[in-house]
Amino acid sequence: MSPDLNIKITDLRVGRRNPKVEDTTSVLAEAPDTIVKCLRCSVNLDITWVILGHSERRALLNESNEFVGEKVAYALSKGLKIIACIGETLEQREAGSTLDVVAAQTKAIAERISDWTNVVLAYELVWAIGTGKVATPAQAQGSKRYHSNKSLKSTT
């Protein structure tokens, strides 16, 4: 007997990755706000969330903490909600710089915004991606404990 697969989705949200800071030029994998506004109207998509600061963009496109902070502030000003990615590389982790790296990433956002209501910090286990290293639950929770114990206001 197969399980009942009649699932009712009642709280589904659509998001997008990496909006541009301005609506002027075309860049691969970046959707200007004008396109998203068009989608909201014509397709009736309620795109309210955006992922910023993803490790791939930080590494491949050299997106700095400051640039990510600017993008967060800009997206908030356009009425979007933010999933801001933070996390350290394997080299940074092995050098014992985890908390410094994560604090600097968070501070760059905190210096540009005052209201965290529509911002979620997502800790990426960047150091474990493609390295063969596996994070324990305690390691994955380590950065979360840092942010839970430290007021974001104190990072500014």
TrEMBL record:
InterPro entries: Aldolase_TIM, TIM_sf, Triosephosphate_isomerase. GO terms for molecular function: triose-phosphate isomerase activity. Pathway: Carbohydrate degradation; glycolysis; D-glyceraldehyde 3-phosphate from glycerone phosphate: step 1/1; Carbohydrate biosynthesis; gluconeogenesis. The keyword Ribosomal protein does not apply. It catalyses: D-glyceraldehyde 3-phosphate = dihydroxyacetone phosphate. Its EC number is 5.3.1.1. Keywords: Cytoplasm, Gluconeogenesis, Glycolysis, Isomerase. Belongs to the triosephosphate isomerase family. PANTHER family: TRIOSEPHOSPHATE ISOMERASE, TRIOSEPHOSPHATE ISOMERASE, CYTOSOLIC. This is Triosephosphate isomerase, cytosolic.
